[in-house]
Every structure is written in C-alpha cells, then in structure tokens.
Specification:
This protein is α/β, with parallel strands linked by helices. The chain has 15 helices and 23 strands.
C-alpha cells in the first residue's frame, strides 16, 4: 500500500494538493494501491472530495478515523427534523434563507445556521447563556451528523472541543489554555480508544499516532508532501519506506542555489541527526536540475535525491489562432510569492499600447490584506474595466478556452503546474524566467516567451510581440501541445514506477 500524507482536501486548494490528487488517481489507475491520509479536521471534507472528483474510498482523514465516520454516506439533516428540537416545545423562526432563531416561550434560546448552498439543512447551532454570551456551538458534518461541539472562555475564546461518533459519544477532546499570552490548543485526548485513553501535546503527535495505526493495519510506503508533516512521517515505526516530495525550491536565495542556505522548513528533509535516527529513504524533486543541485550539496547521499514528475495533463485543446479579442489569464493562488503586483503592472503597460486586451485572474487570495492591496493597485491604475478577478474554481476549461495567453510573474517555481495545465489547452505562456522551470517546462520561442531579469516592461514587450505575430503565436501554441505530450500520464507513471 502507498500512502500520500497531506493536510486536507480543502475548499480552496494549492498546487501541492492538486499534485496529490493527480498522483492518487494515477497510482490507483496503474495498479499501485494508494490512499490519501489527511490530518486537518473539516466537516466539509466529504463535500470537497466530491467537488474535486476524488474517489471517497481513497481518502482517510484522521478525525473521521477516530470518530468512526470514514466512508459514511450523506444523509441530509433538516433543521426542522432534529430529534433534539421537538417542535411541540420550540418554535423555529426563519430570519432569512441562511439563519433561523429557536424560541422557547418567546425567548431566543438557540441560533441555527443553514449549510451553505442547501435549503434548510443544518450547519451549526449557537447557544447563549442567560446574559446573551455564546456558551456553546454545535457543528454538523456535511454528511448530516453532529460532529463537534465547542465551548468558550468568558473572554469568548475557545476553551474546549469535543468530537463525536455517530452515536453522539465523545471520542476525542481538545483543550485550549492560555499559553504565552495566547489561548491555543494544549492537549488532545483520545477517549476510550481500544479501551484506553491517550494524551497528546500537539495535533501532529496525534497524527503520528494515527499514521502508525494505519501502518500497523497495512504496512506501506509513505510520501510526505507538506514540510510541517515531515516529522510525523519520520516517526512512523517500521514502514516499508518514507519519501518526501519537495514541490518548491528549498533555497533561501533560489537565484544562486549553490551558494544559498536551505530554508529552515526543510530541516527534517535534509538533516540527519544520527545514523540511528530515521530519515527519508528518498527525497524527490520535480526536476532533475533541482535534484542535481541537492546531490552536489550532499554528495554522500546522492542516491537519496531523485526526480519524478509533479504533475501531468492530457491534451485538452488544439493549436490556436489569434482572435480579435485578446484575453490574458493567470489561474492559481493569488499570493505574495506569485507576485501579482508585477502582473498588474505588466498588464497596465500592455493595455496602454492596445485596446483589444483584458486580464482575468482566477484563484483565491492568500489573505484579505493582499486582496485589498491588489484591488487597490487595479483601481489606482484605472484598470477596473479591464481586469476581472474570478473566485477559485477547480473547473477551468471555460477559462482556458476563452484565453489567448497565460501570464506568469511568480518569483520562483519548482516546476510550474498551472503553466503546464494552460499548455494542455494549446495556450502559449509568457513568463518571468526561473532557474528550474526554464530548463524543464518553459522552452523559449518554442512554447513560451520568458524574461530573465523579471522586468514588467520587458514582459509587456514580449506579450505584445506574440499578440502582433500570428505565425509566432501558432508556433508557440503547437509547442504548448507538444510539451503536454511530453508530460503525459503514461510518462508520469513510467518515471514513478522506478521508485515504487
């Protein structure tokens, strides 16, 4: 058995999660039995698994595991049919489509929120004490059962959480205390698990216990994709093997990898405390160039550092011709490291020289502050009529079908998953050059145009050059299709099979 170790299947996922989803699908379709093991609690996990077309039988979440709810089918729970809310005594008053009050003798005793995108299905309930402070909340899983309750300190901060099995019996507790001036979780208590109680100081300690339970049931190869989970995988007792997949460039200064220190997040991947301490049997990189730079740094462990593809895509489009309307697109996480500021500056320079172009950004912002910063930048440059920001959506076909070019101004990329995805639709890429993507994905004047010095003005000139040259555009579009063929699922599995 193979186990991919991650945080969650989120409502909004990053490239790391999408890479895991692709690997999970490809491994299972190729006969390598594989499960995705996730740590984080999410009462919407089953919904998000369905949204991303993942086989629910291939996902085991830690909280589901201990709650005994792995694989439970959805049973819709209406707020008006709750056994704990007999309508002979209580009166439910709908305040709007998403919120209801529960009244007893004319007094509000409970607030109920409706599950998003449903009609009258319960999401969570809030109870107030005699003076109107919130005393407890109940949270319902998307599949229709009470999953967790939360109580509060007088300050309003969380004090205690309980997680339940389907019979309503608590199976896991989480205690919050004031630590270093901040209220935070300080203990996880697993209740009556195999007739014993277990105490853990952190969620990762609990996750390590969970991973060992899974391995004890069926020993396997574990692949860690998140650096904050590396220590958990390293502490699995007697697995078949431990792998770490490094999606991003691990150097503090990626411009000069041979001279740069490694980022501290990667200590568990590269540092060996002693020969007796567990280490990763393989550390896998998305490109051979990145693997080679690490091999040169650790020549005594050359065989541990290897490469295997981060992603693959089927051909989903065809060679394109330029249209009268030119739409530039960026699809991906909208965050500081993706350098969206330069993307806006580049588009401003392009739009100053032509009237047939607009820009579409699709993804989720890393923070509200960054969203405000980018929207303010758009407004300051008088681009509100030309720049559109779409929310995150895993379905992107319509975006790429209507696009002309994919534009990327990311500071650094381990490979460039979203650029390969755009190429699968025959979409040429114009991008800042990157030490690893330019050697492996971006082939100048073949499938893309790239800028070495990361200059918005030079990037804008490259965009205009492509948009003004039909034959160049056709050639780059053909190159994008050819690049997709070089990153097929068959070649992906062939590369990974040597490591299985």
């Amino acid at each position: 058995m193979n186990y991919l170790v991650g945080e969650s299947v989120y409502t909004f996922n990053s490239g790391i999660e999408f890479s895991q989803f692709q690997r999970l699908k490809a491994f299972n379709e190729s006969g390598y039995d594989t499960k995705l093991l996730t740590r984080n609690y999410s009462r919407f996990l089953a919904r998000d698994v369905k949204t991303h077309a993942i086989n629910p039988d291939d996902v085991i979440n830690m909280y589901d595991y201990f709650q005994g709810t792995v694989g439970i089918e959805r049973k819709e729970q209406s707020l008006r049919n709750l056994e704990t809310l007999p309508l002979d005594y209580y009166h439910v008053v709908g305040m709007n489509n998403n919120h209801s009050h529960v009244l007893l003798d004319g007094k509000v005793v409970e607030d109920i929120n409706v599950m998003p995108a449903t009609i009258g299905l319960i999401a969570d309930t809030k109870y107030n004490d005699s003076i109107g402070n919130v005393s407890m909340r109940e949270y319902w899983d998307w599949r229709g059962f009470l999953s967790m309750t939360e109580t509060y300190h007088p300050s309003g901060e969380v004090s205690h959480r309980q997680y339940f099995n389907l019979k309503g019996v608590p199976v896991l507790e989480e205690v919050y205390m004031n630590f270093s001036g901040k209220v935070q979780p300080t203990m996880w208590k697993l209740l009556n698990y195999k007739n014993r109680d277990y105490h853990f100081d952190s969620e990762n300690e609990l996750f390590t216990f969970f991973l060992n339970e899974i391995n004890n049931q069926q020993q396997g190869l574990f692949i860690s994709d998140r650096r904050n989970l590396d220590a958990c995988v390293l502490n699995i007792i007697n697995p078949k093997a431990r792998y770490a997949y490094v999606h991003n460039v691990p150097f503090i200064n990626p411009k000069h990898p041979t001279k740069s220190d490694l980022a501290p997040d990667y200590n568990d991947v590269f540092e060996e405390k002693s020969e007796e301490m567990p280490h990763f049997d393989k550390v896998i990189f998305p490109t051979q160039d990145l693997a080679k730079d690490i091999q040169d740094r650790y020549p005594e462990h050359v065989r541990r550092f290897v490469s295997a593809p981060d992603c693959y895509y089927p051909i989903q489009g065809k060679v394109r011709n330029l249209s009268n309307k030119k739409q530039l697109v960026y699809v991906g996480r909208l965050s500081e490291d993706k350098n969206i500021e330069d993307l806006i500056e580049t588009f401003k320079l392009v739009s100053d020289k032509r009237t047939d172009v607009n820009l579409l950004l699709q993804g989720y912002f890393s923070s509200e502050e960054y969203s405000e910063k980018i929207n303010k930048l758009i407004e300051q440059n008088d681009l509100k009529e030309l720049v559109k920001i779409n929310t995150y959506d895993p379905v992107v076909k319509h975006v790429y079908d209507e696009a002309t070019l994919f534009i990327n101004t990311s500071k650094v990329e381990g490979f460039g998953m979203n650029m390969l995805e755009s190429m699968s639709y025959g979409l040429p890429v114009v991008s800042y050059s990157d030490i690893y993507s330019k050697k492996n994905l971006l082939r100048g004047n073949i499938n893309s145009m790239s800028v070495k010095n990361k200059s918005a003005s030079v990037l804008a000139n490259q965009i205009n050059e492509v948009l003004n040259n039909e034959s160049l555009y056709n050639r780059l579009s053909q190159g994008a299709i050819d690049t997709t063929e070089d990153n097929s699922e068959d070649l992906y599995i062939k590369a990974w099979s040597s490591l299985m």
